[in-house]
Amino acid sequence: MFKKNNIGQSIGASLSEWKNCPVPPKQSINGQYCKLEPLSISEHSEQLFEAFVDDSDGHNWTYLAYGPFSDLSSFCDWLKDSCLKDDPQFQVIIDKTNNKALGMASYLRIKPNVGVIEVGHIHYSNKMQRTRVATEAMYLMMARVFDDLGYRRYEWKCDALNKKSCLAALRFGFTFEGIFRQATIYKGRNRDTAWYSIIDSEWPAIKKKYEFWL
Q1: Residue 53: inside a domain, yes or no?
Q2: Cys-Cys link to 21, which of 3, 96, 112, 114 (CB 3.0-4.6 A)?
Q3: Using 50, 70 and 90 to split pLDDT, how confident is the model at 121?
Q4: How many structural domains does the chain have?
Q5: pTM, full prediction
Q6: Cβ atoms of 155 and 118 closer than 8 Å
Protein backbone atom coordinates (compact mmCIF):
# COMPACT_ATOMS: atom_id res chain seq x y z
CA MET A 1 0.00 0.00 0.00
CA PHE A 2 2.59 2.51 -1.09
CA LYS A 3 3.85 4.14 -4.25
CA LYS A 4 6.79 6.22 -5.46
CA ASN A 5 6.80 10.00 -5.60
CA ASN A 6 8.37 11.94 -8.45
CA ILE A 7 11.83 11.71 -6.88
CA GLY A 8 11.69 7.96 -6.30
CA GLN A 9 10.83 7.88 -2.60
CA SER A 10 8.31 5.38 -1.24
CA ILE A 11 5.22 7.13 0.13
CA GLY A 12 1.87 6.01 1.49
CA ALA A 13 -1.21 5.35 -0.61
CA SER A 14 -3.11 8.47 -1.63
CA LEU A 15 -6.13 9.42 0.49
CA SER A 16 -6.99 12.60 -1.38
CA GLU A 17 -10.71 11.79 -1.17
CA TRP A 18 -10.62 11.20 2.58
CA LYS A 19 -13.29 12.91 4.69
CA ASN A 20 -13.55 13.04 8.47
CA CYS A 21 -15.53 10.25 10.10
CA PRO A 22 -18.51 11.06 12.31
CA VAL A 23 -18.07 10.90 16.07
CA PRO A 24 -19.92 7.83 17.39
CA PRO A 25 -23.47 8.87 18.26
CA LYS A 26 -24.67 8.37 21.81
CA GLN A 27 -27.30 5.89 20.71
CA SER A 28 -28.17 2.32 21.69
CA ILE A 29 -26.97 -0.62 19.59
CA ASN A 30 -29.28 -3.63 19.50
CA GLY A 31 -28.04 -7.18 18.97
CA GLN A 32 -29.42 -10.69 19.24
CA TYR A 33 -28.02 -11.46 22.70
CA CYS A 34 -27.27 -8.03 24.09
CA LYS A 35 -27.82 -4.35 23.61
CA LEU A 36 -25.43 -1.50 24.29
CA GLU A 37 -26.75 1.69 25.85
CA PRO A 38 -25.04 4.99 26.63
CA LEU A 39 -24.29 5.09 30.34
CA SER A 40 -27.07 6.47 32.53
CA ILE A 41 -26.20 6.61 36.21
CA SER A 42 -29.85 6.54 37.27
CA GLU A 43 -30.63 3.52 35.09
CA HIS A 44 -27.45 1.47 35.21
CA SER A 45 -25.34 2.18 38.30
CA GLU A 46 -27.05 -0.21 40.74
CA GLN A 47 -27.11 -3.11 38.29
CA LEU A 48 -23.48 -2.57 37.33
CA PHE A 49 -22.35 -2.37 40.94
CA GLU A 50 -24.28 -5.54 41.74
CA ALA A 51 -22.66 -7.31 38.79
CA PHE A 52 -19.13 -6.10 39.57
CA VAL A 53 -19.30 -6.78 43.33
CA ASP A 54 -19.48 -10.51 42.52
CA ASP A 55 -15.67 -10.51 42.42
CA SER A 56 -14.50 -11.34 45.92
CA ASP A 57 -10.76 -10.98 45.31
CA GLY A 58 -11.04 -8.01 42.91
CA HIS A 59 -9.24 -9.78 40.07
CA ASN A 60 -11.37 -8.06 37.42
CA TRP A 61 -10.08 -4.67 38.63
CA THR A 62 -6.35 -5.46 38.72
CA TYR A 63 -5.51 -4.07 35.28
CA LEU A 64 -7.98 -1.17 35.31
CA ALA A 65 -6.68 2.23 36.42
CA TYR A 66 -9.50 2.60 38.98
CA GLY A 67 -11.48 0.49 41.43
CA PRO A 68 -12.50 -1.68 43.10
CA PHE A 69 -15.19 0.35 44.84
CA SER A 70 -16.32 -0.54 48.35
CA ASP A 71 -19.86 0.77 48.04
CA LEU A 72 -22.40 2.04 45.54
CA SER A 73 -21.85 5.68 46.52
CA SER A 74 -18.15 5.67 45.65
CA PHE A 75 -18.88 3.78 42.44
CA CYS A 76 -21.46 6.40 41.43
CA ASP A 77 -19.01 9.19 42.25
CA TRP A 78 -16.50 7.63 39.86
CA LEU A 79 -19.14 7.21 37.16
CA LYS A 80 -20.11 10.89 37.47
CA ASP A 81 -16.51 12.10 37.42
CA SER A 82 -15.14 9.86 34.66
CA CYS A 83 -17.80 8.21 32.54
CA LEU A 84 -20.15 10.89 31.22
CA LYS A 85 -17.75 12.59 28.80
CA ASP A 86 -17.68 12.58 25.01
CA ASP A 87 -14.29 10.84 25.08
CA PRO A 88 -14.16 8.25 26.52
CA GLN A 89 -17.71 7.40 25.50
CA PHE A 90 -18.98 4.64 27.78
CA GLN A 91 -21.39 1.91 26.72
CA VAL A 92 -23.27 -0.31 29.16
CA ILE A 93 -23.75 -3.92 28.04
CA ILE A 94 -27.22 -5.31 28.75
CA ASP A 95 -28.00 -9.05 28.68
CA LYS A 96 -31.26 -9.34 26.74
CA THR A 97 -32.32 -12.54 28.51
CA ASN A 98 -32.92 -10.66 31.77
CA ASN A 99 -32.43 -7.00 30.79
CA LYS A 100 -29.60 -6.68 33.33
CA ALA A 101 -26.48 -4.54 32.96
CA LEU A 102 -23.51 -6.92 33.19
CA GLY A 103 -20.56 -4.96 31.83
CA MET A 104 -19.07 -1.82 30.33
CA ALA A 105 -16.80 -0.78 27.49
CA SER A 106 -16.00 2.52 25.82
CA TYR A 107 -14.84 4.20 22.68
CA LEU A 108 -11.87 6.44 23.44
CA ARG A 109 -9.06 8.41 21.83
CA ILE A 110 -11.54 9.18 19.08
CA LYS A 111 -9.80 10.79 16.07
CA PRO A 112 -12.41 11.41 13.35
CA ASN A 113 -9.96 13.41 11.22
CA VAL A 114 -7.76 10.35 10.62
CA GLY A 115 -10.34 7.61 11.15
CA VAL A 116 -8.78 6.05 14.25
CA ILE A 117 -10.65 4.97 17.38
CA GLU A 118 -9.88 2.74 20.35
CA VAL A 119 -11.97 0.37 22.44
CA GLY A 120 -11.12 0.27 26.12
CA HIS A 121 -12.27 0.40 29.74
CA ILE A 122 -13.60 -3.10 29.10
CA HIS A 123 -15.04 -4.57 32.28
CA TYR A 124 -16.96 -7.80 31.96
CA SER A 125 -18.55 -9.10 35.16
CA ASN A 126 -18.06 -12.74 36.09
CA LYS A 127 -21.56 -13.53 34.83
CA MET A 128 -20.76 -12.05 31.42
CA GLN A 129 -17.34 -13.55 30.77
CA ARG A 130 -17.08 -16.36 28.19
CA THR A 131 -20.64 -15.85 26.91
CA ARG A 132 -22.17 -14.89 23.57
CA VAL A 133 -23.08 -11.56 25.16
CA ALA A 134 -19.37 -10.85 25.68
CA THR A 135 -18.52 -11.65 22.07
CA GLU A 136 -21.50 -9.91 20.52
CA ALA A 137 -20.82 -6.72 22.46
CA MET A 138 -17.40 -6.44 20.82
CA TYR A 139 -18.89 -7.28 17.41
CA LEU A 140 -21.55 -4.59 17.73
CA MET A 141 -19.00 -1.94 18.68
CA MET A 142 -16.77 -2.92 15.74
CA ALA A 143 -19.68 -2.93 13.29
CA ARG A 144 -20.65 0.59 14.29
CA VAL A 145 -17.07 1.80 13.84
CA PHE A 146 -16.42 0.22 10.44
CA ASP A 147 -19.83 -0.24 8.80
CA ASP A 148 -21.72 2.78 10.10
CA LEU A 149 -19.01 5.39 10.66
CA GLY A 150 -16.26 4.43 8.19
CA TYR A 151 -13.23 4.41 10.48
CA ARG A 152 -9.94 3.06 9.12
CA ARG A 153 -8.38 1.69 12.30
CA TYR A 154 -9.74 0.21 15.55
CA GLU A 155 -7.29 -0.13 18.44
CA TRP A 156 -7.04 -2.25 21.58
CA LYS A 157 -4.39 -1.53 24.22
CA CYS A 158 -3.73 -3.23 27.53
CA ASP A 159 -1.11 -3.94 30.15
CA ALA A 160 1.27 -6.39 28.52
CA LEU A 161 1.10 -8.50 31.70
CA ASN A 162 -2.69 -8.82 31.41
CA LYS A 163 -2.65 -12.17 29.64
CA LYS A 164 -6.44 -12.51 29.59
CA SER A 165 -6.79 -9.21 27.75
CA CYS A 166 -3.96 -10.04 25.35
CA LEU A 167 -5.56 -13.37 24.46
CA ALA A 168 -9.01 -11.76 24.19
CA ALA A 169 -7.70 -9.21 21.69
CA LEU A 170 -6.41 -11.99 19.45
CA ARG A 171 -9.62 -13.99 19.86
CA PHE A 172 -11.69 -10.96 18.87
CA GLY A 173 -9.70 -10.57 15.65
CA PHE A 174 -7.09 -7.95 16.53
CA THR A 175 -3.49 -8.15 15.31
CA PHE A 176 -0.64 -7.72 17.80
CA GLU A 177 1.57 -4.77 16.86
CA GLY A 178 4.13 -4.58 19.64
CA ILE A 179 4.81 -3.33 23.15
CA PHE A 180 5.38 0.28 24.21
CA ARG A 181 7.78 -0.13 27.13
CA GLN A 182 7.23 1.95 30.28
CA ALA A 183 4.30 3.65 28.57
CA THR A 184 2.57 4.83 31.72
CA ILE A 185 2.15 4.46 35.48
CA TYR A 186 -1.07 3.40 37.18
CA LYS A 187 -1.96 2.20 40.67
CA GLY A 188 1.63 2.98 41.63
CA ARG A 189 3.21 0.55 39.19
CA ASN A 190 4.76 0.50 35.75
CA ARG A 191 2.80 -0.46 32.66
CA ASP A 192 4.25 -1.74 29.43
CA THR A 193 1.40 -1.39 26.95
CA ALA A 194 0.59 -4.04 24.35
CA TRP A 195 -0.93 -2.62 21.14
CA TYR A 196 -3.42 -4.42 18.88
CA SER A 197 -5.49 -3.24 15.93
CA ILE A 198 -8.00 -4.12 13.23
CA ILE A 199 -7.94 -2.07 10.01
CA ASP A 200 -10.79 -1.55 7.60
CA SER A 201 -9.45 -3.92 4.93
CA GLU A 202 -9.45 -6.76 7.49
CA TRP A 203 -12.94 -6.12 8.78
CA PRO A 204 -15.04 -7.96 6.13
CA ALA A 205 -13.33 -11.31 6.84
CA ILE A 206 -13.47 -10.78 10.61
CA LYS A 207 -17.13 -9.80 10.37
CA LYS A 208 -17.98 -13.05 8.57
CA LYS A 209 -16.34 -15.06 11.36
CA TYR A 210 -18.35 -13.22 14.01
CA GLU A 211 -21.60 -13.69 12.14
CA PHE A 212 -20.91 -17.41 11.63
CA TRP A 213 -20.19 -17.91 15.33
CA LEU A 214 -23.03 -15.74 16.61
Answers
A1: yes
A2: 112
A3: very high
A4: 1
A5: 0.95
A6: yes
